[in-house]
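Obj: model holo form, ligand = uridine-diphosphate-N-acetylglucosamine.
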Amino acid sequence: MDKILIEGQKPLSGSVKISGAKNAVLPIMTAALMAKGKSVITRVPDLRDTKTMIRLMEIVGAKCTFDSGRLEIDGSTVNNPEAPYDLVKTMRASFYVLGPLLARFGTVKVSLPGGCAWGPRPVDFHLKGLEKLGAKITLESGYILAEAKRLKGTEISFEFPSVGATGNIAMAAVTAEGRTIIINAACEPEIVQLCEYLNDMGANINGIGTMRLVIDGVDSLHSADVDIIPDRIEAGTFLTAGALLGEITLEDIIPQHLDLVLLKLREAGCRILTTTNSVTISPADSIQPVDMTTAVYPGFPTDLQAQWVALMSLAKGSSMITDTVYHDRFSHVPELNRFGANIKLENNTAFVPGVNELIGAPVMSTDIRASASLIVAGLAAKGTTEVSRIYHIDRGYEQIEEKFRSLGANIQRKNSSA
Ligand code: UD1
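Output (holo structure tokens):
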């Protein structure tokens, strides 16, 4: 298994292009299955998760070609509305095929995702929402079977906003009979882009970007093309590294998607300059401690919580970081403590004392964002860090070592058989 080797404390400088957003492209790929035609998706990041989703597209019968960030999906041959356990267990986002395939075929079979490194991660909102739209849901040998001749519009109110459930239900509802209203809808930029894409395919969704989506059902969708928005989480990860290691510029981004993150980085003492499509960060002379609580968009993203903990571990003072979205998402804490960070965990809050320096160590990745936080910590730590189980990082970051190397970091991939 590959590892990432880092010689830390090399200053960073220069600029880096941010890739297309993983969490936008995955649901958009499944939306493309609803049309009997060819959709072209550009700025598709070359990630393990995108490749897993391409495999799933092919299993359901779509034809895909992927080359240099351009993905063509031909939905005219889709004929097998089933997502097998082998794929869903490696990538929960496979569950996104549930709504689109049910809408198109009136029946779909998708493996129930199990738990994951951040706790139980239920899918009850997805299932209750589909039931309200008139689907019959049964569980058969670990698979969800959903059936409905044609879904019927209704009002669906989520207890709190869920990104996945909003996307899945919106995709199911666009061709339902009549009007569907989703209350407490997620407002994440990735869901906004999904809804805009569905409208480009002929859907009729109003209230996009608000917590109340109004969807008037149409008979069918046609194919459409889309350019994926930049990945605000990849951008936020590079910003935490810049905050510690040198002035860097992120290009091809949408700074508004990072409003709160930029505000918090300024509070930590960093200087930030934005243009319409770039951000330049200059590190603080000393990082000030800044408390953080994650929340749904436009709050601070749970997907940047681990990287923020890594940044705060080098602050001049103590901070408290609470995850309200995923209470168990702290597997990076014991690994960061291997660098000497001395973080204490109580329920869903990390108490980060802030230390003068981190010392490189062998550490282990446990999920995508935890891995990113270990890389940020390794870049800032004195000496050598070896990050193992890096297949997690490959799920969500395109060419992360190449990008950091281009900024001056000493980071490489080591093939363990070498
Ligand atoms: C998506 C993102 C993930 C991000 C998360 C929160 C993708 C592919 N993944 O995951 O990177 O960390 O949003 O921003 O876009 N919940 C329920 N029942 C449900 C669904 C969710 O209780 O049926 C709960 C979850 O346990 C969690 C909260 O709702 O506490 C938010 O989860 P959700 O927004 O659904 O996350 P995902 O869509 O799985």
